Amino acid sequence: MSQEIASYTQVDLPLLKEKRVSLTIKREELLFPGISGNKYRKLKYNIEAAKAAKQRTLLTFGGGFSNHIAATALAGKIYGFQTIGVIRGEELESKPLNHTLSKAVAHGMKLHFVSRAAYKEKVSPCFLGELEALYGDFYLLPEGGSNDLAVRGCAEIINVQDKHFSHMALAVGTGATLAGVAEGAFPGQQILGFPALKGDFLQKDICNFTSQRNWRLMKDYHFGGYAKLTPELVRFINEFKRTSQVALDPIYTGKVAFGLLDLVRKDYFPSGSHLLMIHTGGLQALEGMNEKLKKQGSELLL
Ligand SMILES: *Cc1c(COP(=O)(O)O)cnc(C)c1O
Fold first, then answer.
1. Burial annotation 30-41 (CB, 10 A radius, 16+ → b, else e)
2. Fewer CB within 10 Å, N side or C side of the chain?
3. How far is the CA of 37 from the centre of ligand 1 (A)?
């Protein structure tokens, strides 16, 4: 798709010096502006497959703030596909569309709103048949874009420049990105996944995507669940941006950075460890999240 030049930022904090641990951020969010870092990786081989199958339409699923919906809409525009987004929550249709969804529409995506109950049945043959009757033939991208082709794309996040890191950390939604990184990692590297949501289902899902066992999930940093924020997290993200010049998103990467530094504080990593945090993107969600925080009268994200 585009040329892929890796970019890194070294984080400089007194805590890291004190613990003799280095922290580098791999700036995947800069990879493809508008297509959030890992969502680009996940789409890459799917778009090739859709083209090879002579499909003209991509259909996929997501919530109202979904980075994957945003990425698919833009990728469709760039690579010449019609796109259809099946969106969880009928109520989102009647309100003025939020930032993520109005941008998706601007990029040509057709939105198909369904109730939360209907959304649960989204991959049933009956529902897919209905969609086919409405929209014709399509290439189906699963929720979050997560399938084996996505895992293959995410394995490419890691390259030879990353060989000297002892640990790698990244956010987990469906786990396909973690599985790809686990596949792409070098022997001896440990991968820490930080789930952005509550629940025990992830472990099994990830095992279905990879047979590697070089990873583990750090489950204490979801801040109450998917897209849940606390004032402490917002403060952390804003402070992190001031000190390191790296913007984090509140749903995924902010929680990873918070968790990683908390683990450093708790001496989880041996002195001399070299940590690589993979910035998976997600910054398009900031605007929508700030709309929400503003209504609550809370501190906004920078
Ligand atoms: C979607 C997303 C993730 C989660 O990726 P999975 O492969 O579903 O685990 C992580 N970070 C960001 C910024 C994302 O948009």
1. ebbebbbbbbbb
2. C
3. 9
Ligand 1: residues with CB < 6 A are 36, 38-39, 67-68, 144, 146, 171-178, 249, 252-253, 280-282
Residue 199 tokens read as: 């629940």
Residue 141 one-letter amino acid: L
Q: Contact 180/151 with Cβ under 8 angstroms?
A: yes
Return the number of other C-beta atoms located less than 10 Å from residue 204's C-beta: 9
| pLDDT per residue as tens digits for the range 13-69 | 999 999 999 999 999 999 988 888 899 999 999 999 999 999 999 999 999 999 999
Question: What is the residue type of 246?
Answer: V
Atom of ligand 1 minimally distant from the CA of 172: 9
Per-residue HEC secondary structure of 36-84 comes to: CHHHHHHHHHHHHHHHHCCCCEEEEEECCCCHHHHHHHHHHHHHCCEEE
Q: For strands 190-195 and 167-172, give the pairing.
A: parallel
CB-side neighbour CA atoms (13 Å) of 299: 14
Q: pTM for this structure?
A: 0.96
Two tokens at 271?
A: 């002195």
**Where does residue 243 rank: exposed (0-12), middle (13-18), buried (19+ CB within 10 A)?**
exposed
- For the record, the structure tokens of 100 come out as 């993520």
Integer CA distances (angstroms), 293 to 62, 121, 228, in order: 21, 31, 11
Amino acid code (one letter) for 108: G
Cα distance between residue 105 and residue 84, in whole Å = 10
Which tokens belong to 10?
């070294």
User: What domains appear along the chain, each with residue ranges and CATH number?
Assistant: 7-34+157-296 (3.40.50.1100), 38-145 (3.40.50.1100)
